[in-house]
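EI: anyone free to look at a 277-residue chain?
SC: sure, send it
EI:
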Amino acid sequence: MRAWAVVENGKPLQELELPTPEPKGTEVLIAVTHCGVCHSDLHIWEGYYDLGGGQRMSLKDRGVVLPLAMGHEIVGRVAKLGPDAKGMKVGDLRIVFPWLGCGTCDKCLAEEDNMCLTPRSLGVYANGGYGTHVIAPHPRHLVDPGTVDPAVAATYACSGITVYSAIRKVMPIPPDEAIVVVGAGGLGLNAIAVLRAMQHQNIVVVDISAEARRRPEGRCAQGRGWQRRGRDEAHHRQRGRPGPGGDRPGERNPDGAFRLRGAAQGWEAGAGWAVRR
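SC: here you go
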């Protein structure tokens, strides 16, 4: 197999020839057809997370070993099945769940692999979708994308799971009750799309960027139930005063809110909306 790998942090990826994995037991060999590029890949490539204040978290200290083929947003076709792998056949198209664990601890045995304390996440701790092949430990780590465009479906292995998890934490909420999404970037747009797919009708998005606030209006939040809120109005409401446009008839605080942006000021802008029953 071929892989485009980080060999040295901050340097161009290098093409490597590696042995093609041979699936054992319940393992499934996937030939990669699509792989998304996540912002996290930039941090892995750099070799650290910037914690602010001049502090860095070294990914080497966190167990990331080079050379590494990054890429955890993977879609591919089944190339070969281990002798105990059931429920699919060669050629099937699948999304690959990348957040793998050790496979033996209580969390992994409970199918909560992402909570494992010794993770083996594809593209982070093990070679991922920047290679031509990856190994899934079990068919349960593979999801049929159905009719979804594979180029979009690949991203659901990361941003899709992230926003769905956040939405599940604030649910159940009646469809006409407000849910606030703090941040209208990539994750925020996905959250809007997922909420609309779940038939939620009252979605409020808060972002300090005017450009970001305009994005969903034209792309995936058209129609009823979409409200744009800026920093000034959020700050007014945070202090118990009406926003620049005044109070809206019948308006009340939302029943759920979640943050989908990294900047602290983005959370500050939405803090006044983050009130739950």
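EI: Residues 166-273 form a domain with the Rossmann fold fold (CATH 3.40.50.720).
SC: 👍
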